[in-house]
Specification:
Shape: globular
Structural class: alpha/beta
Strand order of the largest sheet: 1-2-6-3-5-4-7-8-9
Distance between the termini: 34 Å
Largest sheet: 9 strands, mixed
Order of helices and strands: HEEHEHHEEHEHEEHEEEEHEH
Strand content: 15-25%
CATH topology of the largest domain: DHBP synthase
Number of domains: 2
CATH architecture of the largest domain: Alpha-Beta Complex
């Protein structure tokens, strides 16, 4: 259903009934359901085929709503003031008695919170008045959706509504940061880069799953994926970058922002071709390249 007042009203009614709906954020399309209902959250897991030990990001409409759910220290408040609404998720201590189903946090004592910037998702949050759990709207482990047709191809028949607002703007899931004792730990790189955070950060070395996107195999096409390819091998569809042209290109000019926006879209396209394999050109491992390479490494991991 095209995004507009009618679609938001329909989506809000389904959310109130405990049903999940697909709706865009500025990062990727999300599968949203009310976060205060274990039954509603369970429908997200069922539609995606997602393992229940993998927690969900909870989306909020305001800082006031966020503070009712999690404990914010000064560092967390500063980050929220600088990057919300936007593509930054904060992992924070969960408040006792917060109206969040334990299934959404996988039983952890922390919670992943984000205030999205996309007007469609913001409108849904305002219409429901509820915090919404919303992982990417695709089958678990598959390529994340940046268009409504990606959602339909992956989850068609499993969910009652897809709100179509066109392609997403950023194309990569949010950066996830754990705030602990005033220090920052990046659990998943994303559009908000370490340089943008402007604070000392480290990348997690913890094997425990405490946030989305930490599974070793994730974001994967159905075909084998080879990385750092400078030419196509037999039967491969080569996704180029910069001077490596390929069958398609993330960015002929070597622009990492353009590459991030096009990454999942081109993986979907390559997966739909008659080629038996996919390869991707080398991506510089700095700035947004960190997030792109994180997604590609997980997409290429053995399943």
């Amino acid at each position: 259903m095209p995004w507009g007042k009618t679609a938001i009203a329909r989506a809000a009614a389904l959310i109130a009934e405990g049903q999940p709906v697909a709706i865009p954020t500025e990062t990727v399309y999300g599968l949203a359901a009310r976060a205060d209902s274990g039954e509603a959250v369970a429908r997200i897991y069922a539609a995606k085929g997602r393992p229940s030990f993998n927690p969900l990001i909870i989306h909020v409409a305001s800082m006031e709503q966020a503070e009712q759910i999690a404990h914010f220290d000064d560092t967390a408040r500063d980050l929220a003031a600088r990057f919300w609404p936007g593509p930054l998720t904060l992992v924070l201590p969960l408040r006792e008695g917060a109206p969040i189903a334990s299934l959404a946090t996988a039983g952890l004592d922390t919670i992943a919170l984000r205030m999205p910037a996309h007007p469609a998702m913001h409108a849904l949050l305002e219409a429901t008045g509820l915090p919404l759990a919303a992982p990417s709207a695709n089958a678990s482990g598959g390529i994340s959706p940046t268009r409504a047709e990606h959602v339909l191809a992956s989850l068609g028949g499993r969910i009652p509504l897809i709100v179509d607002a066109g392609p997403t703007g950023l194309g990569l899931e949010s950066t996830i940061v754990r705030v602990k004792d005033g220090a920052l730990e990046i659990l998943r790189p994303g559009p908000v880069t370490p340089e943008m955070l402007g604070l000392p950060v480290r990348f997690t070395t913890d094997d425990a799953i405490i946030a989305p996107g930490q599974l070793a195999s994730h974001y994967a096409p159905s075909k084998p994926l080879r990385l750092n390819a400078t030419s196509a091998g037999p039967g491969e569809w080569l996704i180029g970058f910069g001077t490596v042209a390929g069958n398609s290109s993330l960015s002929p000019s070597g622009d990492l922002a353009e590459a991030a926006t096009r990454l999942f879209d081109l993986l979907h396209q390559a997966d739909a071709t008659t080629f038996s394999k996919i390869s991707v050109a080398p991506i510089p491992n700095h700035g947004l390249g960190l997030a792109i390479n994180d997604r590609l490494t997980r997409a290429a991991a053995p399943r």
